[in-house]
Amino acid sequence: DFLFFWGAVFLITTTLVALLKKENKELTPTKEETKGITDTYRLLFSIIKMPAVLTFCLMILTAKVGFSAADAVTGLKLVEEGVPKEHLALLAVPMVPLQIILPLIISKYTAGPQPLNTFYKAMPFRLLLGLEFAFLVWWTPKVKHEGGFPVYYYVVVVLSYALHQITLYSMYVAIMAFNAKVSDPLIGGTYMTLLNTVSNLGGNWPSTVALWLVDPLTVKECAGAQDQTCGTTVAAEV
């Protein structure tokens, strides 16, 4: 119902904008070059062939491999260990003000001549938080009782997620600041879109691979069934 309602709102508002909003033709054109689709893709190809851009793209495509499993799988494993999904969703609420404040604070450190320094400094802490998340998953079944989970457990989870958000936003804002700094103003939109797309891809493909590898890398034991393995989904169901 929630998705249906907002889907309807989006359809109505975008349709009204398309029908009622008129372009102001009196405005002077900006200095940024406007190109057709073919020219834009040629331009993108010429940008990505530049040695510095190619090296940077390779860096951001692989930089997030180290913490992809912790980011993608931790929440699912906590649910698997019995933490109610509603509780995890509620724990995201305190993160909202933090997510608003963090970019404002971090932008002070990324506004200088070397914004990627913040990215480099945050990376080891985010990798260490991956170990902390692994410990959290291991600890979860040990504190579970009949009534659910104690309050101190949720406090630890909130603090863990808060620390994770700090490292995540430090890296995110630093990359955005760097992309904005190195982009050619004449083709700023095209340049920024290319770098941001590669940056997003660098975060998504490791998470996809991590999720895909969860089952093959998980060791399961069957209780009460001799000579029966639980290595595959079908065997586990049997």
UniProtKB/TrEMBL annotation:
Signal peptide: none
Name of the protein this chain belongs to: ACATN protein
Highest rank taxon of the organism: Eukaryota
Pfam families registered for this protein in UniProt: Acatn
Keyword DNA-binding carried by entry: no
Any single Gene Ontology cellular-component annotation: membrane
Main location: membrane
Gene, per the UniProt record: Slc33a1
Keyword tags: Membrane, Transmembrane, Transmembrane helix
A GO BP entry: acetyl-CoA transmembrane transport
UniProt-annotated location(s): Membrane
Membrane topology note: Multi-pass membrane protein
Annotated transmembrane regions: 6-22, 43-67, 87-106, 118-139, 151-175
GO MF annotations, alphabetized: acetyl-CoA transmembrane transporter activity
